[in-house]
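Page header: ASSEMBLY MODEL / two components / 660 residues total.
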Amino acid sequence: MTESRKKLVELKNLKKHFPIKSSFLKKGTQVVKAVDDVSFHIYKGETFGLVGESGCGKSTLGRTLNRLYDATAGEILFDGKDIANLTNKELQPYRKRMQMIFQDPYSSLNPYMNVEEIIDEPLEIHTNLSKNDRKKIIIDILEKVGLKKDDMGKFPHEFSGGQRQRIGIARALSINPDFIICDEAISALDVSIQAQVINMLEDLQEEMNLTYLFVAHDLSMVRHISDRIGVMYLGKMVEISKSDELYNRPLHPYTQALLSAIPIPDPIKAQNSKREIISGELPSPIEMETGCRFRSRCPFAKSICAEIDPELKQVDDEHLVACHLY
Amino acid sequence: MENNRREKNVLLDVKNLRTAFYNGDSKMEVVRGIDFTVQKGEILGIVGESGSGKSVMVKSILGIIPNNAKVDAGEIVLDGEHLESLSKKEKRAIRGREIAMIFQDPMTALNPLKKAGDHLVELLVRVRGMKKKEAINEAIELLRMVGIPSPETRVNQYPHEFSGGMRQRVLIAMALACNPKLLIADEPTTALDVTIQAQILELLKKLQKENDMSVVLITHDLGVVATICSRILVMYAGRVMEEGMAHEIFYSPKHPYTKALLNSIPRVDGEKTRLKPIKGSAPSLQTISSGCPFADRCEFAFDKCFKETPEYQSFSSTQKSMCFLAGEGAKVDD
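Prediction written out in full:
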């Protein structure tokens, strides 16, 4: 059955390396391998969650995917076509189909533009519609995200954080895209507002047949919204699985540690649960050693882990893990 | 009898605390009459959304609010001593020694031009009157206590050489340097990753036990409170909406706001269901007037809620809630 599902986005061995300028005393350039050889796909109509700690490369992956960054190597197949090396002009039709919702609703909206202008901008760039037609679309989309027609003339500072995020979502949806990257789209919002925005994103997905890449560090929210989840650690994908399966049966020691670190909002469960707190912190992404990147913090590390970098391999239906234990 | 025992054990007693920000003629009351106590040896959690006044409240207790803010009323009694009548200088002597605080952002709380050790040494010399050499040794011990590996070299490093989690540990070491009776932690793990958050919470719990101090933990994360707090205050728009032991707040919340807050978060455990958000957004403190501050967003609000401010109703010796419905609102389930 899964074979018949259409892949909207597919990444093959994607790499994004950032060179660090060396000082004139030190010879040679070092690189940060922010995304290192990552392959996965996203089916049409699904929500793919991407989780990991800060610095693991999840945001870079999102931004490389929609060509805000140029990929160092690898393929980005969007609807079957490799867009990794297209010029800006060739990219234009694809840009129209993928949009992004940013983390910070305070800095991602231009304070000098009113709501109408903000939402109109992508329409002006990507469509040939007349001003009147565009206005109709804007009114329509504002209603969809729970804002009013009267809000069109207002400026971002007149809105609360949650409402600003709605404007950002309206901007992303105005040109009817297929694919939306939500980069920590709800992290800056209050708990009660997060639930409003999540419910709205779910409704819009159904209504407009959207595909989401949901990048976030809030693991309980990711589980809630995602169909499948990928876990990243230091630029590598270490586990991919259906979301329930990942939470019920995490395989990679890092996924296990990450999940057991989530504080459970239930005092009895929280106090009874055996928390496996992993010691140590994310090592520097610059001085990367050979072998598995998690081995310095892994309680199960063996000698092979220092030598060979484990490949992501399938262990179950739709469940992939990169670990020598499996 | 239970009440008697609790009164004897009170470390901090705050009554009718009111703090307002003044801007020319306009006044914005951010903390609007708060009563609470901190027991000896407990970890008290204060939860609330942004703008609920939780940070301003604890800063009012310490006397570190901005110049345009003023504590207008209230009693603050720490271990029998009234803090509200103290001069700035006297308050300064209390900070660090009696009450210490750790802040949310470990990236900006340390002076980038000073070594980690110097932050501690300065404190030990000034507050505890140590000699410099002695203080350096004590600083190394403190860094070891908060779990920083190889403290002998770390003591001579600058803040930029530390990661976020390690900086937060340095701040905790600073807070504990003078054996305070009360530690106030304002969102101490919000800027950290979950795995590091788990480490820091574990550390706080351990240090609280070992040093027998009281901790006030401010957070917006209900998971964090459930993990380490024994008692909880739920704040909204500058008031305490509900107060109770952790199990009372999580398993039998009486206030519709508490209930709604618990319903709006997704669970990692259990079934996936559609989230139940709270409609609308928090009220502006400038326009708020009479009535229950949550009335606009409450599913159970009736006429009276918009006109009169409800009184507290007690449900046990530890649980009380500010709602006319006396718990019925919260009982009406799903």
